[in-house]
Amino acid sequence: MITYLKLGRVRGLSLELKKDFGSRPFFQKNTFHYETIIDIPYVQIMYTSGKWVPKRRASNVNKENGKVRENIKRVHKN
Q: What would the 3-class secondary structure string for the chain be?
């Protein structure tokens, strides 16, 4: 079973329950690129913080201020 909670625009919390995870490790925490993964018996919790930024930005984002530009509708003349 997987449960995902969206916490704002970028942050998220994912909770996954599986028998396959087993009873070990009792508690283990890993952090990688602003994402924290906590392993406890039969459960894996993943938290993505608000500092996470995608590596590749969309083409309609202004690089100077980070705001999204509106899509311009193009008219094709035949």
A: CEEEEEECCCEEEEEEECHHHCCCCCCEEEEECCEEEEEECCEEEEEECCCCCCCCCCCCECCCCCCECCCCCCCCCC
Task: Write the pLDDT tens digit of every residue in 1-47.
Answer: 888 888 887 788 999 998 888 887 788 999 887 889 999 999 999 99
The pLDDT confidence band at residue 74, using thresholds 50, 70 and 90, is low
Domain range annotation of the chain: 2-48
**How many C-beta atoms surround the C-beta of residue 13 within 10 A?**
14
Maximal CA-CA distance, the chain? 67
**Pair 49, 14: CB distance under 8 Å:** no
